[in-house]
């Protein structure tokens, strides 16, 4: 077993390493790369899912196939809530190497500089925009970008769309006609405007964190990866976290970490593992029947997510992706992708983005829109409709509603209670209703009029903001951007400090989207990569200091 020391006792295998990374999602892959780069320290990465061998992972348009595939997806559900019309909302999370970067919508969106300045203003020193910009740049390879904002030569290739559909061009023209500027680079100086989305795609294939960061690390002898290994609890010696117990192929394994244990399991599993290990609110731990080891009332609290709703219209006189995705046309598209990496299979789900304001009085955009020359059955991602159509989705970028993540049993294999409390706050309801009204107007511009026909979602019966809100409650869903359940800060409900060390404990950090104190105005994968880049420097700095 390369890079590890192994001991046997009568009941379990004991492994020893320097750094133990639990979770091989976006953050875990970055950490594996950076902690093995030019270092002799041994790193073990543990992933509950499988390797990223399945072809669906690597074909961008197969996003819809991974959306509910149990091999690649934990297929969670939220608890019902009033904001979702009393429904449980399907809540996909990545399972396997690359985590959610292996199943996400491939959009690369950093957010607004004010998002990160707000993190610093909350007391998290070193997390302002000027501090974290170099880490965004270090991750990426962006050809032709502004050197003041963009990076080149990094592991993650950021590409532009390879085909500009006439409906996309007309959509942009129509949005620009409403006074919304065209934006050459929404990841540059200013986010506001309309633009084609930038994508984590290279040569027609998905650039997951496993295919980029982890692929580099795998060439180093100091790294070991264990898949299909579920972390079941953390092990502790007093206030120090010393390792973790795993369950792999029916066997129990204990891993001991000489330097640190790093939780990179994501906004759902990181707090769940802390809770089942006896770290969290005393009442919850008592209800779980687990030994109370360390009180941290904020573990699992503060869950936030983006909640989206969509408008769709039939089109006529032009081919959309709906037709290209069936029959002989689909067979031709498969052949085209295999030969060139282009065509339907090389698309990200959303083609054009708009970042704009629900109220002209606002200083910064609070709404994000996604446009695609396609539409989905019942307005939900998963199956394309059988007729030509186009869709514009929308979500409020900085929701105020917060919920929680709570383990329901001491077994990490059991789904926890996930309650984002969608649309709980009045501001969220008002902004989303206005955003849906704007999305409808974006599909009804003069530029789209040669092709646009009747609206299919929400439909002509929805004539005011109250009705639109009812539609959003009934048909909306997650944008897969869960954050905040191990929040960074210094207040009573914060879980980690500004160096991502768990408050009151030694030898353990949390490095993933769960540490975000507030929601960035963006899809969250780019910010998660940035967090892991910065965390790797802090981990190595602390190791040098302690040497």
Number of strands: 26
Helix content: 25-40%
What is the CA-atom radius of gyration, in angstroms? 23 Å
Strand content: 15-25%
What sort of overall outline do the alpha carbons produce when their principal axes are compared? globular
Mean pLDDT: 95
What is the terminal-to-terminal distance? 26 Å
Largest sheet: 8 strands, mixed
Can you tell me the residue ranges where pLDDT is under 50 for at least 5 consecutive residues?
Answer: none
Q: What structural class do helix, strand and pairing data support?
A: alpha+beta
Structure write-up:
- Strands 1, 2, 3, 11, 12, 13, 14 and 26 form an eight-stranded mixed sheet that branches.
- The protein is 26% helix and 22% strand.
- It has 547 residues and is α+β, with helices and mostly antiparallel strands.
- The longest helix is centred in the last third of the chain and has 22 residues.
- The protein starts with a strand and ends with a helix.
- The mean pLDDT is 95.
């Amino acid at each position: 077993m390369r890079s590890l020391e192994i001991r046997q006792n009568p009941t379990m295998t004991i492994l020893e390493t320097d750094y133990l990374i639990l979770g091989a999602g976006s953050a875990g892959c970055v950490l594996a790369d950076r902690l093995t780069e030019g270092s002799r320290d041994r790193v073990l990465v543990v992933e509950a899912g499988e390797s990223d061998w399945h072809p669906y992972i690597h074909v961008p348009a197969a996003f819809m196939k991974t959306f509910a595939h149990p091999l690649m997806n934990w297929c969670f559900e939220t608890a019902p809530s009033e904001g979702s019309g009393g429904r449980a909302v399907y809540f996909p999370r990545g399972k396997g190497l690359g985590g959610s970067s292996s199943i996400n919508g491939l959009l690369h969106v950093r957010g607004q500089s004010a998002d990160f300045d707000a993190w610093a203003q909350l007391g998290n020193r070193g997390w302002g925009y000027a501090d974290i910009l170099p880490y965004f740049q270090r991750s990426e390879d962006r050809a032709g970008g502004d050197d003041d904002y963009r990076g080149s030569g990094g592991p993650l290739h950021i590409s532009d769309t390879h085909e500009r559909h006439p409906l996309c061009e007309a959509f942009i023209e129509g949005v620009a006609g409403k006074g919304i500027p065209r934006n050459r680079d929404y990841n540059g100086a200013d986010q506001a405007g309309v633009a084609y989305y930038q994508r984590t795609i290279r040569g027609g294939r998905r650039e997951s964190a496993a295919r980029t960061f982890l692929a580099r690390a795998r060439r180093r002898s100091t790294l070991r990866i264990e898949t299909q290994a579920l972390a079941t609890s953390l092990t502790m010696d007093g206030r120090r976290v010393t390792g973790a117990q795993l369950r792999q192929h029916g066997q129990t394994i204990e891993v001991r970490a000489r330097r640190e244990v790093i939780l990179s399991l994501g906004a759902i599993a990181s707090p769940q593992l802390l809770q089942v290990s006896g770290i969290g609110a005393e009442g919850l731990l008592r209800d779980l029947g687990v030994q109370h080891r360390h009180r941290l009332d904020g573990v699992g609290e503060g869950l936030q997510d983006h909640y989206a709703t969509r408008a769709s219209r039939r089109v006529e006189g032009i081919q959309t992706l709906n037709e290209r995705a069936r029959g002989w046309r689909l067979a031709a598209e498969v052949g085209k992708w295999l030969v060139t990496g282009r065509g339907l299979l090389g698309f990200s789900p959303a083609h054009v983005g708009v970042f704009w304001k629900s109220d002209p009085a606002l200083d910064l955009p609070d709404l994000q829109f996604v446009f695609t020359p396609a539409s989905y059955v019942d307005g939900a991602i998963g199956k394309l409709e059988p007729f030509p159509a186009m869709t514009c989705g929308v979500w409020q970028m900085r929701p105020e509603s917060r919920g929680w993540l709570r383990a329901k049993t001491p077994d990490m294999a059991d789904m926890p209670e996930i309650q984002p409390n969608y649309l709980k706050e009045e501001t969220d309801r008002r902004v989303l209703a206005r955003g849906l009204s704007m999305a409808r107007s974006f599909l009804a511009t003069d530029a789209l009029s040669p092709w646009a026909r009747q609206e299919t979602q929400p439909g002509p019966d929805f004539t005011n903001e109250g009705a639109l809100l009812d539609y959003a409650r009934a048909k909306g869903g997650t944008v897969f951007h869960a954050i905040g359940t191990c929040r960074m800060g210094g207040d009573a409900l914060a879980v980690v400090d500004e160096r991502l060390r768990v408050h009151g404990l030694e030898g353990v950090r949390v490095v993933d989207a769960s540490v975000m104190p507030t929601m960035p105005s963006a899809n969250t994968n780019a910010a998660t990569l940035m967090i892991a880049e910065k965390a790797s420097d802090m981990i190595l700095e602390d190791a040098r200091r302690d040497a």
